[in-house]
Amino acid sequence: MPKKFKRVHLVVMDSAGIGYAPDAGEFFNHETPDIGANTIGHISEKVGLNVPNFQKIGLGNITELKTVAPTDKPLGYTTKLQEVSQGKDTMTGHWEIMGLDITNPFPVYPDGFPEELLTKIEAFSGRKIIREANKPYSGTEVIKDFGERQLETGELIIYTSADPVLQIAANEALIPLDELYKICEYVRKITDVGSEWMLGRIIARPFVGTKADNFERTANRRDYALAPFGRTVMNNLDDAGFPVISVGKIHDIYDGQGINKDMGHNLNDMDGVDRMLKAIALPDFKEGLLFVNLVDMDAKYGHRRNPEGYRDAIQDFDGRLPEIMATMDEDDILMITADHGNDPTFTGTDHTREYIPLVTFSKAFTAPKPLPVGHFADISATIAENFGVAKGDIGESFLDALV
């Protein structure tokens, strides 16, 4: 291994868990505990998974997968990682990856938001809220179901998901962006740290169209996120002068903290890979961290319990791996992981409490092998040691094991 890796490319395949965690019985999809969930495993078993590039790196060496065989000479180090924090949502998983221990879980609202909160939003905005939409909902389905009603009545469409988020969908022809953003800023204020309804993100979801069959969400989405509850390894890298580049919703998840260049939101996962490749090619990115989130697996297929779509999304990413690997320098390292599970074959529509995979690749590796089972924050502890900065609150580096 070189003295250190010059660049770390960290990719989160959002929700791609790899088997239920030991404490899965404490986490539920409605009334069903998450015991038995296995996002990648069940996709492989039930609809097949053809990922030759992941297989070469060693995905099949992490655990038994029906259609992804282990290999005697993997190209990368692999393992699975367990979550310490009390949650199974996007922010908790990502924050722990960067070294934070979230002991108090964010509240989620599987039955919709409380009436008191809705009443406050109505009083501030001067608009009524469609109560029937107040529940976990697909963002495209909720505007299909209630978008025409909003155009008729001017009511707000407020809904949630399995994450600790409150989303407001508004037709741009009826509710101007400035008005929508102002409402979201107010909701952020009353759901901030210390409030009884503390939420991770408030999301403005503008859309256009006149009928249910032609409503379309626009690129004017805006996220109002909580800042992490402590300093992450990204803060330490930024303070030390290293580039910290984000792709996709990474900037939103950390409220921009510790990030000094953002490549923007992804239109889809393949666009996210395109943005990742552009970041790798940046002339001033000679060392530092590139942090990427690919969200389609979670948002489009996990919550909607669509194993075929999820399989295709993983396979599409697998098809881009040779392109990513070819752009890497000799002293780069690629780390691919997840932030929680979302088994598309499981009951309910919620995330699932699972181990996450860790698949690594570097042209500098000489004899890769499986690593011991670890924890989410081991990723950032390894990154911190590599760049000579302080690690987060938790996590143990595995840098010395990479040869």
From TrEMBL:
Listed name of the protein: Phosphopentomutase
Source species of the chain: Lactococcus nasutitermitis
Subcellular location: Cytoplasm
Annotated pathway: Carbohydrate degradation; 2-deoxy-D-ribose 1-phosphate degradation; D-glyceraldehyde 3-phosphate and acetaldehyde from 2-deoxy-alpha-D-ribose 1-phosphate: step 1/2
Location, primary (coarse class): cytoplasm
InterPro entries: Alkaline_phosphatase_core_sf, DeoB, Metalloenzyme, Phosphopentomutase_DeoB_cap_sf
Pfam families reported in the protein's UniProt record: Metalloenzyme
Cofactor note: Binds 2 manganese ions.
Keyword annotations: Cytoplasm, Isomerase, Manganese, Metal-binding
Function: Isomerase that catalyzes the conversion of deoxy-ribose 1-phosphate (dRib-1-P) and ribose 1-phosphate (Rib-1-P) to deoxy-ribose 5-phosphate (dRib-5-P) and ribose 5-phosphate (Rib-5-P), respectively.
Binding site for Mn(2+) 2: D298, H303, H351
UniProt catalytic activity: alpha-D-ribose 1-phosphate = D-ribose 5-phosphate; 2-deoxy-alpha-D-ribose 1-phosphate = 2-deoxy-D-ribose 5-phosphate
CC cofactor: Mn(2+)
Residues the record lists as binding Mn(2+) 1: D14, D339, H340
Domain called Metalloenzyme: residue spans: 6-390
Single Gene Ontology MF annotation: phosphopentomutase activity
Enzyme Commission identifier(s): 5.4.2.7
